Amino acid sequence: MMHTLDDAAIEYLLGFADDELCVGQNHSWWIAVGPFLEEDLAFSSIAQDELGHARMLYEFLELEESVDQIAYGRDPREYRSAHIAELRCHQWPEALVRHVLYDLAEEVRWRALSKGSWKGIAAIATRAIAEERFHLQHALSLAERLLATAEGRKRLLPSFQRLAPMGQELFRVNLDELQLVESGLLSSPLIDQKNSWIKNVETFLDLFNCEINWEQFQDAPGREGMRSSDFESLHAEMIEVLSLDPNAKW
Amino acid sequence: MKTYEVFLKKAGKEPFGHAGSLDAPDDHMALLFARDSYGRRSEGEQIWVVSRDHILEGNQSDLALADRSHKHNDGQRVSELRTNQRLKKELGE
Q1: CATH label of the domain that carries residue A65
Q2: Could you say which DSSP state residue B47 is in?
């Protein structure tokens, strides 16, 4: 069945792509300053994968502008990223916790796309899932080992409590979300995806007696085009090299 | 953290070769890091990760004996001898 890129689908996929772009860029801030060499390499490799996923999604949208223009050249109000993706996380516990929460969410989100009826996007999702398996293994293995120590719990759990509620925004879209299931783009509604994610986060954190106050979430307007305060510096970093010579051929 | 040695094997008949080493908190993480540090660009199709504790190190001085050139037989001298013998025979000497 041929799909048509309706407005809801564009809004949703653009939001997902922008999440990937922001997280990829944020992860890459840790290149050369990761906590130890092996983690530095692993985290940079993950950053690169997330940027690759953003590119695949932007390309799929077949918008009029070039992928570079869409990724770097839009007005901030045209981005659709969730605020948790924009957070700079310049403290390692925050960066690691966001990595855990974000990749647990990605697992659910990609699966719903891979099981949808849009062949092109399902193929992209299948490829992403193959890479995400390693991201998640990495995130959970490292977090588990750190959380097994009192010091690790002291450093990581407050970040989980602060960031997990924010993660709910990843399962939001600006337009009618029912349309996403009706059109076959998603195999399950965002609300169900969000609940699976919450369950997975809770199952993981139960091992460490950590409870999350999900109500603490203030509905964030990232999907409507409102950027968080961290976006400005993130975007400046994204376009730092590009703006040295906007007409350079790469 | 423990130190591990990583070995990679390319496709085909190539033997495993030493790729490098890494530090990891335990075996499970060592395998994960080995992939990211040495195999993320598909440099090999099989990977071995060995804790350095499990490597037996021989005595270096046992390898450093005096002149062992007589053990490096590339067959050249024998081949020269044979060629000369054959030539002599052919010439009917």
Answers
A1: 1.20.1260.10
A2: E
Three-state secondary structure readout of A156-183: HHHHHHHHHHHHHHHHCCCCCCHHHHHC
What is the extent of the structural domain holding A167?
A: 7-244
The torsion of the CA quartet B21, B22, B23, B25, rounded to 10 degrees, works out to: -110
Angstroms from A132 CA to nearest CA on chain B: 13
Q: What does each C-alpha distance from A26 to A189, A222, A233, A234, B9 come to in angstroms?
A: 28, 17, 10, 7, 34
Q: Give the model confidence (pLDDT) of A148-171 as tens digits.
A: 999 999 999 999 999 999 999 999
* In-domain check, residue A249: no
User: Cα angle at A24 between A108 and B8, to 5 degrees?
Assistant: 85
Report the distance separating Cα A29 and Cα A34, nearest Å: 9
In a domain, A2, yes or no: no
Q: How many domains does chain A have?
A: 1
Contacts of B25 in chain A (CB under 8 A): 145
How many residues does the structure list for chain A? 250
Q: What is the ipTM of this complex?
A: 0.83
Q: Given this model, what pLDDT does residue B64 score?
A: 78
Residue A37 has pLDDT above 90, yes or no: yes
Do the domain assignments include residue A207? yes
Q: Which two tokens stand for residue B92?
A: 């009917």
Q: What's the whole-number mean pLDDT along residues A35-55?
A: 96
Choose, out of A36, A37, A38, the residue to mutate when testing the contact with B (most B CBs < 10 Å): A38
